[in-house]
Automatic annotation (TrEMBL):
<dbReference type="InterPro" id="IPR036291">
    <property type="entry name" value="NAD(P)-bd_dom_sf"/>
</dbReference>
<protein>
    <submittedName>
        <fullName>Glucose 1-dehydrogenase</fullName>
        <ecNumber>1.1.1.47</ecNumber>
    </submittedName>
</protein>
<keyword id="KW-0560">Oxidoreductase</keyword>
<dbReference type="Pfam" id="PF13561">
    <property type="entry name" value="adh_short_C2"/>
</dbReference>
<comment type="similarity">
    <text>Belongs to the short-chain dehydrogenases/reductases (SDR) family.</text>
</comment>
<dbReference type="InterPro" id="IPR002347">
    <property type="entry name" value="SDR_fam"/>
</dbReference>
<dbReference type="GO" id="GO:0047936">
    <property type="term" value="F:glucose 1-dehydrogenase [NAD(P)+] activity"/>
</dbReference>
<dbReference type="InterPro" id="IPR020904">
    <property type="entry name" value="Sc_DH/Rdtase_CS"/>
</dbReference>
Length: 268
């Protein structure tokens, strides 16, 4: 993809799942990648190993790409500030932020513990905003930049028993569109990609053949998506191939959001 080579990228929550696949994809594209993690230090290091293997396989000279792991709780303003300082001083700048860190919990809306609800909003929505504003402040001083947010089909469609999750992702939709408009004249683009049912650790059903088959039977394309399929769109949105796209969400869901049935995969 055009314009990713030599760019400095920070990916939050890149120690597993979609974030990890995005890190690997950017390394293949010749970008310098900072892998943020909260608790999974060993997993973040494993991401770096995978990045090395991927860039080597892509014909990039070993050692020519910079990379780093960086610990931070994205919900904490102080952690975020320290993380940005470390990445910017180590890489000499930042061009692309991927807001990927997130969590999800399930429970009846009238019963769900408020501390869990608060934590999810803090990480999925407030965390994305804390990182976005830090990135934007830097971009404004350096001629521009790109933000890509990992949203969900549930930024648009409801999901019973996941009220905090749907609220956080709807909030992300509002943030993406608002920031895109606010900074459209500053060479800063902000977009989201919205995964449907994806084979990642956030979805334990991926390892339960019966539940997986049931969920997949409700997806128009008949299968769940992969982290690599999400990473490809994240890379596209960050690249110069998407130079005229801002404030948009690309749904990567095998047709899930087209499905007219009330019996949805998440109730199946
Ligand atoms: C959720 C998954 C779910 C998918 C489709 C995603 O945002 O993280 O748990 O399978 O949406 O409902």
């Amino acid at each position: 993809m055009r314009g990713l080579q030599g760019k400095n990228v920070l990916i939050t929550g890149a120690s597993s799942g979609i974030g990890q696949a995005i890190a690997v994809r950017f390394a293949q594209e010749g970008a310098h990648v900072a892998v943020n993690y909260y608790k999974g230090e060993a997993e973040a290091k494993a991401t770096i190993e995978q990045m090395h293997a991927a860039s080597k396989a892509a014909g990039i000279a070993p050692g020519s790409l910079k990379d780093m792991t960086v610990q931070a709780n994205v919900a904490k303003e102080e952690d975020v500030a320290i993380m940005f300082d470390k990445v910017i001083s180590n890489f000499g700048g930042l061009d692309i932020l991927i807001n990927n860190a997130g969590m999800q919990i399930q429970g009846a809306s009238h019963e769900i513990p408020l501390d869990q609800f608060d934590r999810m909003i803090d990480i999925n929505m407030r965390g994305a905003f804390l990182c976005a504003r830090k990135a934007i402040a830097h971009f404004l001083d350096h001629g521009g930049g790109v933000i890509v947010n990992d949203s969900s089909v549930h930024e648009l469609i409801p999901r019973p028993e996941y009220v905090g999750y749907t609220m956080s992702k709807s909030g992300l939709r509002g943030m993406t569109r608002t920031l895109a408009l606010e900074y459209a004249r500053d060479n800063i683009r902000i977009n989201s990609f919205a995964p449907g049912a994806t084979l990642t650790p956030i979805n334990p059903w991926k390892d339960d053949p019966q539940r997986k088959a049931d969920i997949e039977s409700h997806i128009p394309m008949g299968r769940a998506g992969t982290s690599e399929e999400m990473a490809a769109v994240a890379a596209f949105l960050a690249s110069d191939d998407a130079a005229y796209i801002t404030g948009q969400t690309i749904f990567i869901d095998g047709g899930l959001t087209l499905f007219p049935s009330f019996r949805t995969p998440w109730t199946g």
